[in-house]
User: Which sequence fits this backbone?
């Protein structure tokens, strides 16, 4: 809703200006106002429609749907989610799961979700996991920047948003047991690394800390 | 072989061509109507129908902006409910031959007929208030955009449950706003000439027929 306020204020300001400049001319105001209104809505329609859709979107409530818990605005589109441990969640996201659209707009927060973090979605056409991950990271600036180690078989994620698994949670000194950034594809454990994930049109990638 | 007509206008170029065509049709109908000696309202309903169909088809690139709603509303005000039904259903059917015919045509015909009914019901009030500006008509036309859209949206009940209807209506509000703004635009610029034309052909002897012209000349 907040994103619509500038549109409303602009519309009201120009309408008042039109009223002030046309009130001396009989019946000029209705013509000028109607013409301005139509042009304003046509020009801003794409933005208004996008903001309205974000505002009116609801969370998918079918548990067997890979998009479960995500805004229905992203149906048929791709998304990446980052779930953090409760004590290590970046301060901006510790009140639930935030949802960022493809342009980086944080438009909905699910405060009832069972983990804290964020999802970035609304992407289309990505075929490889790394490409989608990079798109999600770029869309939100440096918020979810990740460090990785390159191996011959692909990349291994060391940290996301500054969260290093063995700093956020306790790992064995010799690393015989500990935690790592686990990748889920459509809600199921991914048997291949992010470099080798072949995406569907509506894939959901989820990063969460898991033990080994 | 030279393909001399293969000029790629692009969407905006095509829209300008469509606006030019609609202006030509409107101007020609306006001139034609002036030379019609018959007082029959059916002839002018036919002319208005041609303009409404042309407008709906030619303005199709702009979603939900078309002159049909305002024309049907005004025909309801001036000619009554039954004649507005004729206009509403025939415009919906003929324009959908070009734009796509289906179950929605029935809902569109019903929706525009409802607008005609509203026009005929408000005819007396508009008359009694001796309208000197288009403001009341603009407000009614803007609301008609929402009423028509919501009526047509009822067709989703065939595929979605009633519990999703409100959500569907809510998500379509930007399109309703576009329809409302388009209706206000058409009232602002067309109400006066349409009012003149309709007044010349009002034959319905009932108090609901508006006698005065809409005064919106600058």
Assistant:
């Amino acid at each position: 809703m907040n994103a619509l306020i500038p549109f409303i204020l602009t519309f009201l300001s120009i309408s008042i200006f039109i009223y002030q400049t046309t009130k001396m001319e009989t019946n000029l105001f209705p013509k000028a106002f109607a013409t301005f209104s139509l042009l304003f809505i046509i020009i801003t329609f794409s933005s208004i429609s996008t903001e309205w859709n974000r505002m009116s979107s609801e969370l998918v409530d079918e548990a067997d749907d890979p998009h479960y818990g995500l805004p229905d605005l992203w149906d048929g589109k791709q998304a990446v989610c980052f779930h953090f441990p409760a004590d290590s969640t970046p301060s901006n996201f510790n009140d639930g799961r935030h949802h960022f659209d493809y342009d980086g707009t944080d438009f909905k927060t699910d405060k009832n979700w069972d983990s804290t973090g964020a999802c970035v979605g609304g992407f289309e056409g990505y075929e490889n996991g790394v490409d989608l991950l990079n798109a999600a990271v770029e869309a939100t600036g440096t918020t979810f920047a990740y460090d990785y180690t390159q191996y011959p078989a692909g990349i291994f994620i060391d940290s996301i948003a500054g969260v290093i698994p063995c700093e956020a949670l306790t790992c064995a000194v010799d690393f015989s047991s500990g935690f790592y950034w686990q990748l889920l594809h459509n809600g199921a454990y991914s048997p291949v690394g992010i470099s080798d994930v072949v995406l569907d049109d509506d894939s959901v990638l989820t990063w969460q800390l898991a033990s080994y | 072989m030279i393909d001399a007509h293969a000029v790629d206008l692009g969407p905006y170029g095509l829209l300008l061509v469509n606006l030019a065509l609609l202006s030509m049709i409107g101007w020609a109908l306006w001139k034609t109507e002036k030379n019609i000696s018959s007082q029959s309202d059916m002839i002018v309903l036919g002319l208005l129908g041609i303009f409404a169909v042309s407008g709906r088809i030619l303005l199709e690139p702009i979603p939900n902006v078309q002159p049909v709603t305002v024309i049907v509303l005004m025909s309801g005000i001036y000619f009554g409910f039954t004649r507005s039904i004729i206009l509403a259903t025939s415009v919906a059917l003929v324009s959908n031959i070009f734009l796509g015919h289906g179950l929605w045509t029935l809902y569109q015909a019903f929706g525009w007929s409802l607008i005609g009914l509203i026009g005929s019901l408000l005819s007396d009030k508009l008359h009694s208030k001796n309208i000197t500006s288009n403001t009341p008509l603009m407000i009614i036309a803007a609301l008609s955009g929402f009423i028509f859209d919501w009526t047509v949206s009822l067709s989703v009940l065939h595929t979605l449950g009633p519990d999703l209807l409100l959500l569907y209506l809510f998500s379509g509000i930007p399109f309703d706003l576009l329809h409302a703004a388009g209706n206000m635009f058409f009232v602002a610029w067309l109400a006066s000439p349409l009012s003149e034309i309709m007044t010349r052909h009002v034959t319905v002897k009932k108090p609901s027929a508006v006698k005065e012209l809409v005064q919106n000349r600058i």
About this structure: The longest strand of chain A covers residues 116-123. Helices of chain A lie at 5-22, 28-56, 129-139, 165-168.
